[in-house]
Write a structure and sequence with these properties.
Blueprint: E1 3-7, E2 11-17, H1 22-26, E3 34-36, H2 39-48, E4 54-59, H3 61-71, E5 75-82, H4 86-96, E6 101-106, E7 112-118, E8 124-129, H5 143-146, E9 151-155, H6 162-174, E10 178-182, H7 186-191, H8 193-203, E11 206-210, H9 211-218, H10 222-230, E12 235-239, E13 245-248, E14 253-256, H11 269-282, H12 287-301, H13 311-325
Parallel strand pairs: 1-5, 1-9, 2-7, 3-8, 5-6, 9-10, 10-11, 11-12
Antiparallel strand pairs: 2-4, 7-8, 12-13, 13-14
Helix pairs in contact: 3-11, 9-10, 11-12, 12-13
């Protein structure tokens, strides 16, 4: 069986449904973006939201993708950095629940927190205190972490640490792994564009982007962006929300519809799409089936608050995957 290793910012999501978007303006948080904040701002925001109901779940883009793959029965690993605190314990428990091999280092700062503000239209905005996650460094990585794995999945948020991500993808390629990246957020792409393009062209085999990220990366609309990205890697995927996803390789191009879903929170939609797509790819299924499994997972996770789904929903997903494969 193929194995997938992930690396990302090990964060705990604090998920809050907000009554209106005024608080986004008050904290200078562009709707739909991921903004980095310091510990003080993170705590201030959480206090301002304390009158609202919230949920806590382990998060971080790559961690969500690995968690989804593990629930599909894949053998997985994950590299990240946390702190020896309560949120660190939450992250470790969630990450290892399905047998994922966790390479979790301990940092000096508190475990990172992604305060996730969910608007009434289900769009989510992140105020992220990276904490210990940002302390993950190139020097922490060892070649043996990559041995025995077939795919290496990273999140675009890691491009904030150029040395870390470049060292990681070099180690992955030296050990024969296919590298996939989720571009993660349009503003991260905007501020790291030249580095990201170089990274993709030299090391990345599979690129996941939503239409905003694809536009930031190429300056183009989804189909044109898909074509440009496909010139730089083996497989390019542009997700277009309720219109599904576009997939392109050198020899094939297709469009796959999204499933019907009652969207209440889009947190994790792209991450779980990547879970489904990589699951299909690792098992040798057609690109169409890969995208359909991705759509199945992405469509299910937007019907719940946060990036985690309960066991009954995962059982229904397993049934849905079997139907796609038959």
């Amino acid at each position: 069986m193929k194995k997938v290793l992930g690396m990302g910012n090990a964060l705990v999501d604090v998920l809050v449904k907000i009554d209106d978007d005024k608080i986004l303006d008050n904290y200078n948080l562009p709707k739909g973006s991921m903004q980095l904040v310091d510990k003080e701002a993170s705590q201030s925001l959480i206090r301002a939201l304390s009158h609202l109901k919230y949920e806590v779940a382990s998060g971080g883009s790559a961690a969500n993708t690995i968690n989804g793959l593990a629930h599909l029965g894949m053998s997985c690993g994950y590299i990240g950095k946390i702190h020896d605190d309560e949120f660190g314990k939450v992250f470790t428990k969630d990450m290892t629940l399905k047998g994922t091999e966790a390479f979790l280092f301990l940092g000096e700062q508190d475990t990172g927190i992604a305060t996730t503000l969910i608007s009434q239209d289900s769009q989510r905005t992140f105020a992220t205190f990276l904490g210990a996650a940002v302390e993950l460094a190139a020097g922490d990585l060892k070649a043996e972490f990559f041995q025995g794995y077939d795919f290496f999945h990273i999140e675009g948020y890691l491009v904030l640490n150029h040395a870390l991500i470049e060292t990681a993808v070099k180690m992955a390629k030296e050990n024969g792994l296919k590298v996939s990246i989720d571009l993660a957020s349009f503003n991260v792409v905007d501020s790291n564009l030249d580095f990201l393009k170089k990274l993709v062209a030299e090391y990345v085999d599979i690129v996941f982007a939503n239409e905003e990220e694809a536009k930031s990366f190429t300056g183009k609309a989804p189909i044109e962006a898909l074509l440009e990205i496909s010139e730089m890697c083996e497989i390019s995927i542009v997700k277009v929300g309720e219109n599904g996803s576009l997939v392109k390789t050198k020899g094939e191009q297709l469009s796959v519809k999204a499933i019907d879903a009652n969207s209440i929170d889009t947190t994790g939609a792209g991450d779980l799409y990547a879970s489904g797509f990589l699951f299909g790819l690792a098992n040798g299924y057609s690109l169409e089936k890969c995208a359909k499994i991705g759509s199945l997972l992405g469509g299910n996770v937007i019907e719940v608050i946060g990036p985690k789904m309960d066991i009954d929903r995962w059982k229904a997903i397993q049934v849905g995957v079997a139907e796609i494969l038959n």
